[in-house]
Design brief:
7 strands
C-alpha cells in the first residue's frame, strides 16, 4: 500500500510540529549523539511504553554515553542499568549489535535494510525505524499505533506484517515516521480516539463511516505452573540464588530454585513450607507460581547468598525481586 497524499502528510507533520513530546532521544539530526540515542531508544522501546523507558534511557546514557563505550562495557553493568525494564535479552543484543558496528562498520549503522536486519535484536520494525530516523529514508515502522492510524484512515484492517509504507511528496521522512507513531499514541488511541482534536478526520473513513474494522493483533498466551523453593538464612536475612536453567526467558540470571510443574502429580518437596500462590506474566507466558521456603544456615551447592538489607551491584531481575518482597514478610 502506498500513500500518495501530500495534503495528508502535511497535516500529520503540522500536528507533530505543534504537539510532539519532548523525549531525551529526540536530538537534532546534526547531533553526533543521534545515531547512538536512536539505536538505544529503539531497543528499549521494544514492547515497552515511552513513559517507562524515559528514565531508564536518561540514566543509561549518563553512564554509557556512546556506542564505543557500550561495546566494551561489562555486561553486568549494562544489565544493572537495565534492571527493572524487563526483556533482558534486548540488553544483551544491544551490546552485541554495538560490538558488530564498531568492529565491522567503523561505528556506523548500515544504510541497507538487509544488512541492518542481520544485527542482533533487529527485526523488520526496528530496521525500518532506524533507517527512517537515522538516515531519513522513506520508511514507516509499523507498530500498533501506526497500524491503528492507517486502519482507521482507510477503514481497512492493515496486516501487521506489511510494515513498509513508501511516503511520497515529503522531504521529512524521519519526522513523518515519528509523527505517525506519536499521533497513534496521543490522538488515535486504541479506546476512545480523540476525533474532536484530530486534524485528519476529513480524510478518515472511520470518522466518516462511523464503523471500525481495526482488529488488534492477538498474542498467544500460555499458562504454566511453577514451584519456587527459597532457601533462607533467618539470622542473616539472606536468600540463596542460583543461575537459572529452567526459565528460558531468564536464562543464566539469578533466581531461587525453580521447578516447572508438568502435571498434578508434581507436589512440593518434603520439608518445605508453603508461603503463597501468585501470578506473574512474562512475555507471552502467564505464570502460576506456588512459593515455598525453608530456613537453613547451610548454603546449597551452586547457590550464592544474597542479603535483603545490603544492596548489590550485581544485576537481579525483577522476577527475583518480586520473590524477595514475598519472602521478606517471614522476617517481620
Amino acid at each position: 500500500m502506498h500513500i500518495n497524499n501530500k495534503n495528508l502528510s502535511k497535516k500529520i507533520l503540522s500536528w507533530y510540529d505543534n504537539n510532539k513530546r519532548i523525549l531525551p532521544w529526540r536530538v537534532s539530526y546534526k547531533s553526533k549523539k543521534k545515531q547512538y540515542y536512536r539505536i538505544l531508544s529503539e531497543f528499549m522501546l521494544q514492547q515497552t511504553q515511552v513513559k517507562t523507558v524515559t528514565p531508564y534511557f536518561t540514566k543509561f546514557v549518563s553512564k554509557i554515553p556512546n556506542l564505543k563505550v557500550l561495546s566494551i562495557s561489562n555486561e553486568k553493568k549494562i544489565l544493572k542499568l537495565w534492571e527493572g525494564l524487563g526483556y533482558y535479552r534486548r540488553a544483551k543484543n544491544l551490546q552485541r549489535t554495538a560490538k558488530i558496528l564498531i568492529r565491522d562498520y567503523n561505528g556506523e549503522l548500515p544504510i541497507k535494510f538487509d544488512e541492518i536486519k542481520k544485527l542482533p535484536g533487529v527485526g523488520e520494525y526496528t530496521a525500518n525505524a532506524l533507517l527512517a530516523l537515522v538516515y531519513d529514508q522513506p520508511r514507516i515502522p509499523i507498530d500498533g499505533n501506526v497500524r491503528r492510524v492507517f486502519s482507521r484512515l482507510f477503514n481497512k484492517n492493515i496486516q501487521y506484517k506489511k510494515n513498509t509504507f513508501k511516503i511520497f511528496e515529503t522531504s521529512r521522512n524521519a519526522d513523518l515516521a515519528e509523527a505517525l507513531i506519536e499521533f497513534g499514541a496521543l490522538i488515535c488511541k486504541p479506546k476512545k480516539p480523540l476525533c474532536n482534536l484530530c486534524n485528519l478526520k476529513e480524510n478518515c473513513k472511520f470518522f466518516k463511516d462511523k464503523t471500525y474494522t481495526f482488529q488488534k493483533k492477538k498474542y498467544f498466551i500460555r499458562e504454566k505452573k511453577y514451584n519456587i523453593y527459597c532457601y533462607l538464612n533467618k539470622q542473616k536475612k539472606e536468600i540463596a540464588l542460583t543461575r537459572n536453567k529452567n526459565l528460558s526467558f531468564l536464562n543464566n540470571f539469578k533466581v531461587p530454585k525453580t521447578q516447572i510443574v508438568m502435571s498434578n502429580r508434581d507436589q512440593k518437596i518434603r520439608g518445605w513450607n508453603y508461603l503463597c500462590n501468585y501470578k506473574n506474566n512474562i512475555s507471552n507466558i502467564k505464570m502460576n507460581i506456588n512459593l515455598f521456603y525453608k530456613f537453613t544456615k547451610v548454603k546449597p551447592k551452586n547457590f550464592t547468598w544474597y542479603s535483603f538489607d545490603r544492596p548489590t551491584d550485581e544485576f537481579i531481575p525483577s522476577f527475583t525481586k518480586k520473590i524477595f518482597k514475598k519472602v521478606e514478610q517471614l522476617y517481620i
